[in-house]
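Internal ticket #5521
Category: modeling
Description: The requester needs a full-assembly model to guide mutagenesis choices. All entity lines are attached below as received. Residue total reported by intake: 903.
Assigned to: D.W.
Attached entities:
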Amino acid sequence: MYGTGLAKGLMLTLRHFVDSFVDDLRYGLRKYSHATDNFGLRQGTAAKGVITVQYPDEKVAVPERFRFVPFLIVEDEDHPTRSGKDWCTSCGICAKVCPPQCIWIVRGNDPDTGRPVPEPEAFFIDIDICMNCGYCAEYCPFDAIKMDHDYELASYDRTSHHIHDKEKLSKPASYWRDIAPTRAYEEMLVRGTWEHKDAAKEARRGAASARAGSRTQQPQAEVQPAPVVTAETAAAAPAASATAEGATPWSEDDAKREERRRKALERKAKRAARSGG
Amino acid sequence: MVSPAIAPDDVVNAVSIEDSIAYLKSKHPDAVTDDEREGYSGVVVQASKLLEVARAIRDDLGFDYLSSATAVDYLGAGDHMEMVYHAYRTSGGGALVFKAQTERENPEIPSLVPVWRGADFQEREAWDLYGIKFPGHPNLRRILMWEGFHGHPMRKDWREAYYEEEQKPFDNRWPGGHVHRSEEKNVFGKNVTYPSDIDLNRLMDTSESEVYASLGLGVDVERILDKDGFETNELVVNMGPHHPSTHGVFRMVLTVDGETVTSLEPVMGYLHRNHEKIGERNTYLHNIPFTDRLDYISSMGNNHGYVLAVEQLMSLGRKYNPPTYRCEAIRVMMVELSRIVNHLWAIGFWLNDIGAFFTPVLYFIQERERILDFFEAVAGSRMMCNYMRFGGLFGDLPERIKSVSNLTNDRIRDYNTMQFLTEMVNERIPRTIDELEQLLTQNEILLERSIGVGVLSADDAINYSAAGPLLRGSGVAYDVRRADPYSIYPELDFDIAVEQDGDMYARYRVRVTELRESVRILKQILPRLEATEGESIWADGKPGAYAPRVPFGEAYGRVENGKGELGYYVVSAGGRGGSSNPWRYHVRAPSFINLTPMGLMSTGYKVADIVGILGSIDIVLGETDR
């Protein structure tokens, strides 16, 4: 009969309309609450109701592999030996693999010998040109450049804000472990240490010379060598309990999340001060 | 494995490629020679005999489908221009590759439009970008660049604005990388003047009249536009380039008699960025994220075709590890998921075009969202996936699809990957397809709008090199996954969707069937993923090099993408240890070539049907204009 197809389709839209309230009735405000992990109720595979997210009042947290404009890893402030030091050795591989060629690196030279030092003198990324492909992070042999999760980079003036220099690009190593715990862990397994490759090498050398020194009764080196974490010890360490039973790196308590939220607010304020001023 | 539907049933079609070449050489002994260059295949045909040989290829040997026709500039490597043709049989099998050469100064090669109409736009592109003239072409005008553009940009000695170096990586980025913006180096600055012969008041140069003249009706545009002389009852209508129904910046110029379309001419190039020139400056690796930007609805498929082409080339060398089984399985899964995304998108927006405004498409987009979430968790980006690498992938599937709170007001998600996939493949996607059918397949309005509209016959579809659902909706059971299989498709069980009617509704039905077949493939992929759990995605266990050396040769990698046959023709100039940048990088874009029969399909229908017909072809301008 003419019109049955139409009626069937209209029944479907009616069902969708009703469904959009079913989850609301079932879960109530839980579906929209912030503190708990109830977002899956709204956007998961079993969700039936309205899936929209009210940006910017609420945002979907990006997955670990998400990639946006890169940043450079520097050692944490509280690192015993290398505080604030770049992980980058200015080898230039990121500049070579960059498809739109938006990375500019000035390699530093030792003023006395004139030989290159393994640290960039200047580092620029033109974020207007960056296509967020992630190659720089993927092919960096030192895990020194990573793709960021902070996608809110709008600013009022592109000429003064869109070439990121080293200061703007640098973020502490702990930030990377925060935003991508499983990936940081996997990288640690490949490197064999939570430290930078060179730091681990130095630490080994330092430990060897300390042993040699103790034999000749020389005073102990004042600088404590950075702890070398191997894959085996890392698995046992609390920070890397990924493989331990029960505890997964992605299960985290509310305190940690609250801490991260506070940091995010700080970053936001900093950003606002930077681009607004 | 070839499915019975496309098994050769004709004696002609049983002739192998080698025998076909031998036949051509015996029939035209002085015009056809083997292409003896290292890593090359096929035959070189003397340009003066090209038309005869092409007729023999089509009529005597049954290669009825011209997949790709493109030019190569061998400046400094023989100093000649070359047209490369890839012809296939719609009954399946490999390509007969034939080439015609001409000198770089005043290059001329006879047009193959009389043999295959599908060569029409491709030869126009070769004229536009390489400056090769095609005597016998009915309408040889620029197609991507504008009329009046100076030079032919794909020629090796042509340099673009802000030209830095022939090939990337550029030397000034490292170690002395003092940053500057290219725009600061613009010598003209704001001091730009117009040539004196452009009349800014009229804002219409000669190329516009040529567009109108090409409509073939002798419409005197000057007279139509002139208010006083407006006496004709033929009307020229410009749809686009800024028109929501054209799915981007695409323009159709049509003449109408009342409401009936009497002729139609697609005008494109508004989104042209010379993807291929960029691709030839790039290294092989650099090109992968650029392919994402072609058909940005299904970037996984774009990656796949390009990676296959370069892997073909790399396999000619000594050090090459083919991808592992797990890698192939993940690739196929990703490609099929993007096919689902593509078809949901295509059907949804086609419905927008014919009047079902946004209700259906929003239902479909919910599923697309979840698939894109999955892409984002696996590849790092929702649309610009940049996921495949030569011989591998960016990374294996993560154990969990989980998000990490970073910004304020972040909402967290955390699923088990395989569980998520299983639920998607077994429940959500099939449910959405059921809903789609319930909503549309028997809907009387849809039936009346789409049945018998935009008809393309099977012979025309083949002759015009139509591909994908456009070809299969016209009753030609041709699907690259079966006709010329790649990856692990031979061992997967699925059917080619085909409909006989050749109208908009048939194309819709083809897409629905393909959605179901994709789900069928995905259901076979999931156990394969579970079986290969823990296996590396790289043959030698570690990621590939960032600057792979590619040996001398040519390769044509093609895949069945959502929009049709997507092909990449890549030439490596070789050299010691191989080259790191492609000499030629050509994209056989289905969206572009599928527009060739647009005029034919539209003539005789109403203006209101035009947007629907365009929507049923399913184009994306990132790929059309490249």
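Resolution: model delivered.
Comment from assignee: The two ends of chain B are 34 Å apart (CA to CA).
Ticket closed.
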